């Protein structure tokens, strides 16, 4: 056996390459704030910004021209309260952003993250009762949020809260309101991860007390991920997601092997920022490491990857 024969030069290497990442499989996350003329770099996530809607439109134009047609919108409201009202109130920031994008770029595929943690003053993903997130009282708030984004024109709704039964609840609410064609992508196996650190910084959404361990999954568990995934599929999820991606490649693989619907993986903020930081220090080649990450996530079984590297990839800057 001479395995090296097929590694002699790039022509043969690319001919036998098993995994190729394409930009049409990538989703780019964007952070939207109230106001005008704002494009503020997120200090812990180099080259990622908080955009006001007018500036967001310039970004969307650039992405569109790069052929990146899937964006995931996160809102950062001016006002946070106990019930996360700014997530679903009339004229909420995410709905306004969706409408603005859809008006100018009707075929931009707009995905709306549905969760309350960016909108609550306590930073938890739901309704707090006696210091505990009450599951069933959170569901109607999530459904209201989902409907508001669907009304604004979102193509896909992605609940990231990890409440039990939310896929069934949101699917029914969407259907009852006539949004039968709105796609539901569930953050099914969402782990309680320290790799969300930079995102929480970006969205100012870190919990003000306690942690998310009573709703997000224990990183030690693998079979439990399948239980969550199967439940979401039964409840009507069109796409399931594993999050984070790199430390959970085994979960992505198991999701792929055990289901027959598309598997999405979220290459989260911490995975991004670690590479950027190490690159800045001159310790690794960040562009190569980013590409290696994306290829590995796809090789593990992801059909779709949400990644802050999407733009660099589309520009052809990763290798
Ligand atoms: C909201 C949400 C989070 C992320 C996506 N949706 C943060 C969290 O659960 O604390 C993290 C994304 C990232 O780190 O890139 N619940």
Your description of this structure?
The protein is of the alpha/beta class and 319 residues long. The chain has a domain at 19-234: TIM Barrel. Helices cover 39% and strands 19% of the residues. The chain contains eleven helices and twelve strands. An eight-stranded parallel beta barrel has the order 1-4-5-8-9-10-11-12, surrounded by seven helices. A two-stranded antiparallel sheet has the order 6-7. A hairpin with a 7-residue loop joins strand 2 (39-41) and strand 3 (49-52). It is globular and about 65 Å long. The model has no long low-confidence stretch (mean pLDDT 98). Residues 113, 115, 117, 125, 160, 196, 199-200, 268-269 line the site of ligand PBG. Ligand PBG binds next to helix 6.
Short description:
The protein has 319 residues and is an alpha/beta fold. The chain contains eleven helices and twelve strands. Residues 113, 115, 117, 125, 160, 196, 199-200, 268-269 line the site of ligand PBG.
Overall mean pLDDT stands at 98
Please identify the top-level CATH class of the domain at 19-234: Alpha Beta
Strand arrangement across the biggest beta sheet: 1-4-5-8-9-10-11-12
Class derived from helix and strand content: alpha/beta
- If you consult CATH, what is the topology of the domain at 19-234? TIM Barrel
Number of strands: 12
SSE succession: HEEEHEHEEEHEHEHHEHEHHEH
CATH architecture of the domain at 19-234: Alpha-Beta Barrel
Principal-axis shape? globular
